[in-house]
Amino acid sequence: MTIRLTFRRAALGVAALLLGGLLFAWSGVMTIGASSGHWPVTEWFLHWVMRSSVRTHALSVKAPEDLSSPALLARGAGHYATGCAPCHGAPGQPQNPVMQQSLPSPPPLAREPGDWTPEERFRIVQHGVRYSGMPAWVAPERTDEVWAMVAFLQAMPQMSPETYRRLAYGPEQGEEAQAHGAAGLRGLAREEMADCARCHGPDGRGRDNAAFPVLSGQSETYLAQALTAFAEGKRHSGIMQPPAARTDAAALREIAAHYARQPAFPVPQSADAALLAEGERIARAGIPEEGVPACLSCHGGAALARNPAYPRLHGQHAGYLETQLALWREGKRGGGPFSVLMHTIAERLEPDQAKAAAAWFATRREAPDQ
Ligand code: HEC
Ligand code: HEC
Ligand code: HEC
């Protein structure tokens, strides 16, 4: 007997299969437990889909030329220690056995980094992996931060546990940093300060070249405002939002006051004379034809004394200042109640003008005045 395949029969067949599938799911016989693992074929299929997707989406990504600067590695390692190591482990630090029971389980990236290109790693870290527990970057638009993480992931498999600890926790670790930084802090703030000190140092000077902005010498008002903005998600950073959000609000206020009490620390920096001259012109006179006001009208010594919500720029790392201006220009930075002022100003600055102004402020040791 032959059965002729008609459209009607095919449709009925598909409907019967769908119904059967639904009934099977409804019966509850299928296990969704992570303990029994996937069938090998399911495992193979899921990873094949993941690899193909990552490969195709990475085609439009272009890696920066230098992924080896100490500042990038320190920024990546600092975040890895709290944001990734609990699932993936780290050099000298085994994986959490609880996370190893998740399905798929997170690979131990220090030993088994996988053969991804930097662009593919960028794609995975920026967007995460659906249905796997691998989270997306908290602020996916901060591509500068995602590259810092990729730089660290590339270097981690060759890294000794000692180098990793120094990069992730700073030269003064744990109790030492707490003892040094905690003078004047009480209770909870004393403990929570150790987290900030990993990256910013107990005195707010930062470490590893330009890895972290200098906090010492900044006003308490500005620091507290910046921390609230990070904690509430109004200023976007995959590296700073988590520590601000996991720290108690009262402790954050005390820590802001602690850093504001530390003596200012102008970072020694130098730059090309022509660039500095251009930067000084913009800082003192603005760019009237573009509607850019003089930076010193808000960031000069007299203005800072008048309005503690304005940050000091002098002696800050040039690279940090330039990045913040670029973020405003691209609509990616928020901040405190007056940050909209900076959005309007930064939008009107060309990248080379922003670079010049950043370099001039960075090389000033004292608060400049107009
Ligand atoms: C909650 C646990 C968890 C956290 C936190 C986590 N991951 Fe993952 N990650 C996973 C899991 C699970 C996978 C496996 C995904 C898969 O097999 O499809 C994974 C996969 C990856 C991969 C691809 C590895 C490979 O060879 O397949 C990279 C790279 C990665 N994670 C980096 C990171 C980084 C960087 C961070 C921190 C910013 C991070 N992960 C945070 C769970 C986590
Ligand atoms: C993993 C490293 C890391 C940790 C931990 C960390 N920070 Fe930060 N912090 C950074 C980085 C990187 C930036 C620059 C963020 C950006 O580019 O948006 C920053 C920026 C800041 C700023 C803004 C500075 C400015 O000039 O606007 C403040 C304030 C700050 N951090 C305070 C803290 C406090 C307080 C803690 C502890 C609760 C802390 N940070 C924990 C890395 C860290
Ligand atoms: C009208 C006042 C005003 C003027 C003029 C001004 N700024 Fe600002 N600037 C601010 C305020 C307010 C903030 C803090 C924003 C926030 O809440 O995060 C800021 C922040 C910044 C920051 C970020 C600092 C940090 O620690 O993250 C940079 C960089 C900066 N300004 C550069 C400039 C430059 C360059 C100029 C001149 C072209 C300029 N500003 C002119 C008010 C001003």
Please sum up the structure shown.
The protein has about 375 residues and is mostly helical.
Total number of distinct structural domains: 3
> Tell me, what is the CATH class of the largest domain?
Mainly Alpha
- What does the main sheet amount to? none
Radius of gyration: 26 Å
Describe this entry's structure for a reader.
The protein is mainly α. It has three domains: 66-169, Cytochrome Bc1 Complex, Chain D, domain 2 (Orthogonal Bundle), CATH 1.10.760.10; 174-261, Cytochrome Bc1 Complex, Chain D, domain 2; 273-362, Cytochrome Bc1 Complex, Chain D, domain 2 (Orthogonal Bundle), CATH 1.10.760.10. It contains 19 helices and no strands. The protein has helices at 7-27, 40-57, 70-83, 85-88, 97-100, 118-127, 143-155, 161-169, 174-181, 187-200, 220-231, 241-246, 249-261, 273-285, 296-299, 301-306, 318-329, 339-347, 351-362. The protein is elongated, with a radius of gyration of 26 Å. The termini are far apart. The model has no long low-confidence stretch (mean pLDDT 94). It binds heme C (3 copies).
Write the layout of secondary structure elements.
Elements: H1 7-27, H2 40-57, H3 70-83, H4 85-88, H5 97-100, H6 118-127, H7 143-155, H8 161-169, H9 174-181, H10 187-200, H11 220-231, H12 241-246, H13 249-261, H14 273-285, H15 296-299, H16 301-306, H17 318-329, H18 339-347, H19 351-362
Bound molecules: heme C (HEC) (3 copies).
List keywords for this structure.
19 helices, binds heme C, 3 domains, 55% helix, Cytochrome Bc1 Complex, Chain D, domain 2, 370 residues, mainly alpha
